[in-house]
Amino acid sequence: MSNQTQRLKFTQLAASIALVAGSATFISSAHAEAPAAGTNISNVASATYTDSTGASKQVNSNIVTTTVSPVGSLTLVANRTATANANALVSLSHTLTNKGNDTDTFALTLVDVTNGSGDDYDFSGRKIYLDTNNDGTPDGAPITSVTLAAGQAVNLIVEGTTEATATAGKVGKWTLTATSGRTDVATGGALTASNTDTVTIINGAVISLTKSASVSLIDATKSADADREVTYTLVYKNTGNSVATNVAVTDVLDAKLAYVAGSAQLMGVAKSDDDTDSDNYKFVGNILTLNIPSLAPNTTGTLTFKARVVQDTDVGLIKNTAEVQIGTDQKTPSNDNYVEVKKVFKGTINDSDSNPYADGANPGASLDNQITIPDLLQGQVAVFGTAATEKIVIHNTGNFADEFTVSTSNGTLPTNSVITLYQADGVTPFVSTGTIAKGGKYELVAKITLPASYANAANPNLTATLLVKPKSNPTQTADTLDLIIAKVTPATVDLHNGNTTDQDGNGTTVGTGKDAQQYANEASVLPGNSATFPLQADNLGSVSDNFNLSHNLPAGWDVKFYIADAAGTGPTGSPITNTGNINASTGLPAQTDNKLKLVAVVTPPLGETAGYKDVRFTVSSPATNLSDTISEKLTVQADRKLVLNQDRIGQVAPGGTIVYKHTLTNNSNLIEGATASGIPFALTGVAGWATSLYIDNNNDGLIDSNDTLVTGSALTISGGVAKGTTVNLLVKVQAPTNATVGTQNPVVLTFSPVVYNTITHPVLTNTDLTTVTEGQIRLVKDQYLANCTTGAAVTGAYTQGTVNAKPGECVKYRIVATNEGNATVTDVVISDNTPSYTTLKAIATVSPFASNATLGGISADGATGTVSATQPSLAPNENAALEFVIKVNN
Question: pTM of the entire structure?
Answer without folding.
Answer: 0.56
